[in-house]
Structure prediction request, 339 residues.
Amino acid sequence: MSKKKRQKSAETIQTETSAEQNPASKKFPMWIVWLAVCLATSIGLTAYFLYKKPAEQTSKKTIGGVTACQQVPPFVRALGFGNKAAFSTSDRKIQGLILMEGEKKYQHPSWKIAGSLAPITRDGKGNTFTAPAPWIDVLENKPDEQNKVYRVDGQTQEMKVFSDLPKAKLPTSQNPYGVLGLSFDCDTNSVYVSSVAGSTRNEINGRIFQVSADGKVVSQFEKTDAIGLSVFNSAKGKRLYFGQARTSEIWSIALDDKGSFSGEPRKEISLETLGTRGDDKARRINFSPQNEMIVFGIEFGFNLIAPTEKQETIYRFRYDAAKDAWNYIEEPPQIVGQN
Prediction:
């Protein structure tokens, strides 16, 4: 109601009942009523914004991983590959993405347009996602091109840019990397991407992105340098687990029903003192059907390491639903080459 209308209404009331006929009007002027209403509204809004909680997950999910929908690209069978075929980005003689099974190898011409690649994941339609990452040098991997995610179409085999992610800062000579980790969530049809683009030896500028099926950034988590990452439906809701790039710790952050970041991150476990090196970083995180977290640990320090030195150690942790916690499964270190 406008100020003009409020004044007219007050005048009408005074005409019908004058101040002399109604002494109570002198004791309770209208401006006091309006002041009380405004004050109450202000207090209510302040309380709402101060105590408003971040979006939470309202639907219960079965405890476990979220990659059951992932499909093998239809073209794999059409090319004559069998059940043991796999994509690889670590062949020393072939740059880019290759499909291999035993001694049999195949590469579509478009699979090498981004230079050396590293992380790989798939969606529920058989599309494959990957991202560039330099190995020995940056001749084929220009620093300003390292924050892109590429998609290989499950039908046509064609590899194209899926998402060109925003950088917090321009790349520097101290850090040749951009995207380091990829993971897919079947529940929300989201691709999660970890990037250290713009970070330096002493400054954290990395981000974790939630990217939709059409390549658009839905939400992002700032100031975190992470490598491997994966989503898990815990006893208390959906969480994204990610390995820190600067320490041996694995942290997690809650996700809401749409897969967006919610609340504050928390430390889950650490690889410190484990394995042969004792300071591995989590390059890749997988979850087994038995609700075990399988971590592939590597040496990482923002510097390029020769492929012959890139050895992974596998670590396993079992989920305790009652405590919403992870317990290390002690076993002899299992060392493998990168895939």
